[in-house]
Every structure is written in structure tokens, then in C-alpha cells.
């Protein structure tokens, strides 16, 4: 009887091996140091939701996330001639195994009084990554 139970578990309930994915985020944008951090956290979350484990232990599949473009364009000025609003756009390319896809998003943000600071810019980056998050999740899930 015990033999049948063990045989049943071996045949019917085989435990799948963990699916590991090693993430590397590339792109050289010195002014936007936090973009790599935000992108990496969202990609890790998408991997976990897709049933993968973010780990670089062997055996793992490499996932390359390339930040190809970070661009901001002024769209409004203050009465003193300072730029007060921008359109920020980000373009990411993801390569997972033999699949490759490009994701682009943009978000407007404003600097009150035309001041310089990163708080509103970081919020715009988060908004962009949130907008393309579902597409990233679909890309990872199709593997």
C-alpha cells in the first residue's frame, strides 16, 4: 500500500522546477539614476506575478532590460520665461530568451514656479512605468 502511495505521488504529483530569471538593467543616463531602480522593481514584480523567481543562480534564463531613451520636452513656460511643464518619455527594450519587445510611454509633469527638482520627475517616471506595466507582464507571461 505504501508503495502505491509513493508511486502515485511520483507519477501524479511531479513538482516542477523553479523557473529562474536573471535580470540585468542596462542604460546610461546619469541624470536619471533612479530610473534603473524603478524599472528593476517593476520587472521583478512582473516576474513574481508570472510565476518566475528573480534569481541569477544556475540554471536561469537571462532577461535584459535596456533603457534606450529618456527624453523630456518643454511644453509650457512661466511668465518669467522658465520652463514649468515637460513631457517625459521613456523607451525600454526587453529581451527574454529569443523574444524581444520595445515598450514606450510618456507622461507630462510640471515644476511649479519653474524650479528645479526631482520629486515631480520621479512621479512621472513611476506613472510611465505603471502605464506600460501590463504590457511588460504580458511579455513575460508569454514565455
Describe this structure as you would to a colleague:
- With 143 residues, this protein is α/β, with parallel strands linked by helices.
- It contains 3 helices and 5 strands.
- The relative contact order is 0.17.
- A 5-stranded mixed sheet has the order 2-1-3-4-5, with helices on one face.
- The model has no long low-confidence stretch (mean pLDDT 84).
- The protein has a single domain, classed as Lipoprotein like domain (Double Stranded RNA Binding Domain, 2-Layer Sandwich), CATH 3.30.160.150.
In short:
The protein is of the alpha/beta class. The protein has helices at 2-12, 33-49, 119-141, and strands at 20-26, 53-54, 61-77, 83-96, 99-110. The protein has one domain (15-141): Double Stranded RNA Binding Domain, CATH 3.30.160.
Largest sheet: 5 strands, mixed
Mean pLDDT: 84
The CATH class is identified as Alpha Beta
Order of helices and strands: HEHEEEEH
The CATH homologous superfamily name equals Lipoprotein like domain
CATH topology annotation? Double Stranded RNA Binding Domain
Spatial order of strands in the largest sheet = 2-1-3-4-5
Strand content: 35-45%
Any guess at the CATH architecture?
2-Layer Sandwich
Shape designation: elongated
Helix content: 25-40%
Number of helical segments with 4 or more residues: 3
Helix-strand makeup class: alpha/beta
Descriptive keywords:
36% helix, 3 helices, 5-stranded mixed beta sheet, alpha/beta, Double Stranded RNA Binding Domain
Which secondary structure elements does this structure contain, and how are they paired or packed?
Blueprint: H1 2-12, E1 20-26, H2 33-49, E2 53-54, E3 61-77, E4 83-96, E5 99-110, H3 119-141
Parallel strand pairs: 1-2, 1-3
Antiparallel strand pairs: 3-4, 4-5
Amino acid at each position: 500500500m505504501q508503495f502505491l502511495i509513493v508511486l502515485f505521488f511520483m507519477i501524479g504529483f511531479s513538482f516542477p522546477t523553479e523557473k529562474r530569471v536573471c535580470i540585468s538593467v542596462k542604460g546610461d543616463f546619469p541624470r536619471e539614476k533612479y530610473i534603473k531602480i524603478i524599472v528593476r522593481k517593476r520587472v521583478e514584480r512582473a516576474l513574481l506575478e508570472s510565476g518566475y523567481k528573480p534569481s541569477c543562480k544556475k540554471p536561469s534564463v537571462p532577461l535584459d532590460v535596456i533603457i534606450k531613451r529618456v527624453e523630456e520636452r518643454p511644453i509650457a513656460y512661466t511668465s518669467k520665461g522658465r520652463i514649468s511643464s515637460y513631457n517625459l518619455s521613456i523607451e525600454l527594450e526587453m529581451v527574454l530568451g529569443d523574444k524581444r519587445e520595445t515598450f514606450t510611454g510618456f507622461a507630462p509633469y510640471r515644476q511649479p514656479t519653474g524650479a528645479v527638482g526631482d520629486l515631480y520627475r520621479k512621479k512621472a517616471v513611476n506613472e510611465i512605468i505603471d502605464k506600460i506595466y501590463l504590457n511588460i507582464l504580458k511579455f513575460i507571461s508569454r514565455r
